[in-house]
Amino acid sequence: MAGSNDELEVLAPINALFDECGRLKNFAMLKDIQLDIPEFSSFSDLPPYNLKNYSETLTLEELRFSSISDYQYEILKPQIDIFENIAIAKFRLKQKGMLVDNKSFTGKQIIINGRATFVLIKKESWKIIHFHLDQIPE
Quick check: pTM over 0.90? Predict the structure, then answer.
C-alpha cells in the first residue's frame, strides 16, 4: 500500500483524474494533472486502440467520464516506483457507475475491474505523461 509522502504525491494527480474528472466532472483539471508535451501518450482496451497523444486523450477522457453518472472508483494494491523525477504507478482499478445514453435516456450499471499503469514526471508537481488502462476478468 502506498503510504509515504512521496508515494502519496505521485498518486495525487491519478486520484484527481478519477475523482475530480470522473466523479465530479471537473474536466478543466485534466490540463492541470497531465503534461502537454509531444511525448505524452495513452492507450486502453477501449476504441480507438491506437496510441493517443495529449489532445486526443483529453477529448476521450471528457467523453468517457461525461457518459458515466454516479461514478465511483477504487485504487487497489498500488505499487509506486520513484526514480528521481520519474515515477511509475501500477495498481488494480475498480470503477463503477451508470453508463448513460443521452439520446435514448437509458442507462446501464457498469462495474469495471482493471489494471492501470501511469508514468509521471515531476516538474513543480507530479504530472501524468503516459497511462495504460485495461480490463481484467474477475
Answer: yes
